[in-house]
Design a protein that fits this description.
It holds the Pfam family Gal_mutarotas_2. The protein has 718 residues and is of the alpha+beta class. 22% of the residues lie in helices and 29% in strands.
Amino acid sequence: MRFFFIISILFAFLLDCGSRFEKISPFSIPPQEFDLGNGIKAVFLPTELSFITSKGRILEFSIQDPFLSSAKGEQIVNYRKATFKIKDKILLECGSQSIESLGLESGALVLKGKLTGKNCETGYSIRFVSSSNSGLDWKVEISNPELNRTFIKFKSDGSESIYGLGEQFSHLNLKGKKPFLFSEEQGVGRGDQPITWGAELLEGAGGNEYSTYTPIPFFLTSRNRAFFFENSSYSVFDFEKDSEIAIEFRERGLNVKSWKATSPKEILKLYTSHTGRFPNLPDWAYGTWLGIQGGKSVVLEKIEEAKKAGNPISALWIQDWVGQRKTVFGSQLWWKWFPDENRYPDFKNFVKELNQNGIQVLGYINPMLATEGPLFEEAVKNHYLVKDKEGKDYIVQTAGFPAGLLDLTNPKTRIWIKNIIKQNLIGNGLSGWMADFGEWLPTDAVLFSKESSEIYHNRYPVEWARLNREAIQEAGKEGQIVFFTRAGYSYSNKYSTSFWAGDQMVSWGRHDGIVSSLIGILSGGMSGLTLNHSDIGGYTTIPSPIKDYFRSKELFLRWAELNVFSPVFRTHEGNRPAKNHQPYSDPDTIKEFARYGQIHLALKEYFKFLNKEASESGLPILRPLYLSYPEDNNTLDLQNQFLLGEDLLIIPVLEKGEDSVKGYLPKGEWEHVWTGKTFQGGVWIETPAPLGSPAIFLKKKGAWYEKLKSALSSFKRN
């Protein structure tokens, strides 16, 4: 089981980027204009350097104050179970800036100067090049090799809303916020109380509003401009000031792609054309994925029970295919990556028989090996694991047992683990798996490639996804097998076949419960993660003397109701299955959950259309209203409702005990699915939403109106 000891997260100590800028020296460059080609020009004035495309301004630097600085720093890292508490000690600082020259060189605009400070001096250059798609590429180079911190800032304004930066689970609009980007365990609670306090007290793993598995250094704004940083170190994006955007990367230099467009949709198309897009799901993926554990007889019984109730089960997800162990955290798995024949006798035929009955089987794998068993021994013998500074295998302490981490920079390691995937997963007939973790690489690990683990850390989950995808391709199974990842970074959308939102609490929590799962999917969608879903009911289950966090029946059904409108409809028993309400807990739940599965399947044709659109354009399947209605100021901060494509609007119940919801309908005519009542858009409404009849609205003049109305009409409650 995707173990994830639940007390693990990173509380970073963020730098104030503004304090890194001291003064700018007078300069004598006259005002002038430069044509960069492709409809982009640069204008240099005594007050600013701006870049203007045919679609408007894309970038502006104030030159009355320094906009670039550099430093030498040393990170002080407290690492525990993929929770990283990071402080940065600045040793040298070049906070003063001079501009010495500005001119065209081979079609590029090159700005050069010096950065200085106490015992600190370096030359720098920034090279700006236009691209053919209303883009501006720029590269910052710092000449002093001793410096390993880069700080830059450019103009913004108070009306500029900001979206993206990967999966952000607490905030959709990031204006006024100061996120850090570092892939890690998201934490337990992340600000919801009292669990955050308890997790922090006991394990230092409560997390905070910016901790995330999948940070991505890309953001777009309501000025229809976007910025993507090709760097991979720990970074801080400071949007707190109205007048500026300040950014820090803990490495030397920056490599940036920026775009200007006429709409946020166009920006996502441009961004994903560069970074990649998710493939289409196979046809079987649109039914219910039943997540069960317990061995052959248990899972077959639960499948039969669900099917008798009419649930369109198309996949069985058995993460315990490798066996299960009990730890203080709950039910966890044996990380040995071959079938447990005691739990699932004759595993290959077991899978084959389910396939013949129309049910695909999915498993589980991660890039670690428990310190026992033949694969671990083979990995140690052949030096397939990351090392510590003494050259020994770096053994990390997980929630219940120690494990070694695969060194994905070693080509031989990659070949070895791909062969295991091809033989033990694909070879046994599995149609997919959870490709868990990826965020666990310690920042002081020694890699085969000799790369800095501080720089490689964020790239590790991307390489893990890439490796899984390569194994599928090498086996000739592209398009037939689906693996889903939770950790990622830049280019995850190029290699993963789907995502899930990780391990939320089994709670109604704002920062780490059902609410956060939706926000994470919406923000991820604005960052290229178009194909995403969450565990139905959440995952992290905790007994506590102050408050027990166990999944209730109401929470399970409301979460299932929400996930009807995500492309993958998958359950998870959680880390303490016996404490959680399950899809099989009572006859009423079995019946109601079957109905939700039927509604999800009824939307199959629409999901397939949206999946194809996502694979061709990079537009997410679940969309914040801002993406489709950017001109409407009421949509800027909406994060608790969403559009499924363009033609379905959902206002989910996300609070305990509620049977009505309040939400906003944008321009146009919207028909309430269950009552048939039509609303004129541009209004805030309150509407009944009893359990089983969520607030769903059809876009009356939408291309899919008739088909969706027909698909959903039979599920109306009397």
